[in-house]
Specification:
2 strands; alpha+beta; single chain; two-stranded parallel sheet; 46% helix
């Protein structure tokens, strides 16, 4: 069965203000994924081929440079 997940690496590098903005961005991305019926589209695709499994991962990664 298909799955959609959001992963984040190194969010601890963010300041409090940046983290609050990040949460808003993450929520907006989740809202877009929910409204676009992506889950249903993935499930339809899986049903079209026996044994097919589709996983969609949205990955946020923070790599701040240290000064």
């Amino acid at each position: 069965m298909s799955s959609i997940s959001i992963e984040t690496n190194n969010e601890k590098q963010l300041t409090v203000d940046e983290y609050v903005r990040y949460l808003g961005i993450r929520d907006q991305i989740q809202h877009i994924l929910d409204n676009a019926n992506i889950k249903e589209t993935l499930q339809d695709a899986e049903e079209s081929i026996n044994g097919l499994s589709i996983d969609l991962i949205v990955k946020f990664s923070v790599n701040k440079k240290k000064y």
